[in-house]
């Protein structure tokens, strides 16, 4: 079914990240849907490891310049864009000096999770939603990949609930065995600032607890890894949301 507008929101994508299942799967899904004649866009964080020169990223001035308030502080949103090497497929990067300049993703060199991972996820989610609206491009399908992307449906169904922009978009969530880590206990206060409260994930905030929370707010949950670990597998089995076992890339369009 070509001519769908498909938005991939991901924390990783090959070739910007190499040797990860998540990054490889997103690359293959996006390319396949693009080559089948769909209008595909990808959004991801501009982590410090991604070379702007190598991948020819450039700032989109008309989309940049917005400020997003996180924990009562104004954080400037910078949007960069590149074409996937060798393809006419646009990848948009959410950037901010404070949150994404560092070379590591979520953990410092000692393996300790960054204390502001919660703010980075909130900024990423808000940044993606606001930028899509600025693009004036309404997706038919939003496909989420990676723990940071799980903040998107939480925001869409709470903070943006009265906004009709995304009302017809169907949201798909892929689950992956990502390394888990706790999130700052102050996240409840930061979300409260956006009138978001009462989430089960706030009882024990972590990467995984927000992925599990977001299952309630999407239209379809699908296994991104063939076999899920521990609590993630339990949550997948117990969710009342429509769900699908692992699909290879050639079958993914059945979901859409």
From TrEMBL:
<feature type="domain" description="Starch synthase catalytic">
    <location>
        <begin position="5"/>
        <end position="194"/>
    </location>
</feature>
<keyword id="KW-0808">Transferase</keyword>
<dbReference type="Pfam" id="PF08323">
    <property type="entry name" value="Glyco_transf_5"/>
</dbReference>
<keyword id="KW-0328">Glycosyltransferase</keyword>
<protein>
    <recommendedName>
        <fullName>starch synthase</fullName>
        <ecNumber>2.4.1.21</ecNumber>
    </recommendedName>
</protein>
<dbReference type="InterPro" id="IPR013534">
    <property type="entry name" value="Starch_synth_cat_dom"/>
</dbReference>
